[in-house]
Every structure is written in C-alpha cells, then in structure tokens.
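Notes continue from the previous slide.

Worked example: a multi-chain complex. Inputs as given:
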Amino acid sequence: KAGVTQTPRYLIKTRGQQVTLSCSPISGHRSVSWYQQTPGQGLQFLFEYFSETQRNKGNFPGRFSGRQFSNSRSEMNVSTLELGDSALYLCASSRERGDSYEQYFGPGTRLTVT
Amino acid sequence: QKEVEQNSGPLSVPEGAIASLNCTYSDRGSQSFFWYRQYSGKSPELIMFIYSNGDKEDGRFTAQLNKASQYVSLLIRDSQPSDSATYLCAVIYNAGGTSYGKLTFGQGTILTVHP
C-alpha cells in the first residue's frame, strides 16, 4: 500500500510570495493533518481536514490555509511568506478503527523563504 | 495548555543495551499515545502506539503506559546503531471531538547508540 505522498519535496521562495503544497493520503484514509516542524518550535499542528471540511485548527495566522478535495487529497497554502515560515511542512493521514487511532506522516516539503 | 514533556537528551547507550525514553503529559483526558522515530532530514515514522494501561510489545520495542501517573515510556531492547535517531512522543487528547487529527508532540529525545 502506498504511503503518504507530498509535493514538491523542496521549495525556495522569497518574502511576500505565496506557496501551495500538496498531499495525497494513504488510500482509504479520509483525514489529513498538516504540521510545521522547526528546530526551535518542534512539531506544531496547523489544521486537519476530513471529508472536505476543516475540523480542527491550530494557532497559526490566517496566512496559513488549506483545503481538501473529494478524493481526500489536500493542499496547504501560505500567503505573504515571511522568513520565519521556513520549515519542514508535514502532512499526515489518519484512520480510526474502534479504539485504535493511527497517524502516518509523508516525507514532508522543505520550504526555504529568502 | 496541554503539554507533553520528554526526558532531555541526548541519550547515549552502548550497542546491545536497553534504551529507555520517557514522556509525561499534562491532560488526564489524553486517550492515545504514540512514539515516532525521526532520522535526521527525514519525516517522523510511527513505531508504536498505545491506549491501554500496561505494556505493549512489538519486536525490540515496548511501550509502557501509566495513565494514573500520566507517563508513557518506550524501551528499546538490544539497541543497534541504526536506532540512533530522535524519538518523539505524541498524545492525542480525543481522537474525535475537539481534537480531530491533532497530535501534540514533545520536543523529542536524541538517542545515540554507539558500537
């Protein structure tokens, strides 16, 4: 079974630009979560989508947004990029089976803002 | 503020030894607990999850959960140099409800296994 895929893997942008990252979850997983990982702050939750609806949101400014399509693929958008947005952006897909809950990460997109 | 704290590292153990990684969490409403391994430059890899008090074993890995004391640990038996990585503890407070899809992570513990 294929894992979570993310594109692109690496991205370099300049301040003020916007960026869109893409994520395809594991087949059959309907929940997609996004995280930002930086050396200083660690892994921080951005938001989660299920059946094209955002169900949960972290403490990030409105410049960070996302959406999910009917095939469960998800995109994340960051507008007006700042230097501090340089990070590894991770997508994770999840499934719940009874009492069991599992979340698997994709390889990530490394964004550098110059 | 729901917090997850991991024992500060780095942790260094000799090859073949048992590595013990610990994690405490602040919210008694926590439901499920996860251990991820992250190699440098890679994304986190799920190695164990546990939601019932007690021990859960998978190969060389054993997760231990004590909800009364609010801690979860990971033991790695017969440690190998390939186990050298950052280990992340994560907690989900409620898989549904207000915490959909949201794992709260600790800062991670760097483990080095030396030959």
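Summary box: Chain B touches chain A at residues 31-32, 34, 36, 42-46, 49, 51, 88, 90, 92, 95-96, 98-108 (CB under 8 Å). The CA atoms of residues 33 and 91 of chain B lie 5 Å apart.
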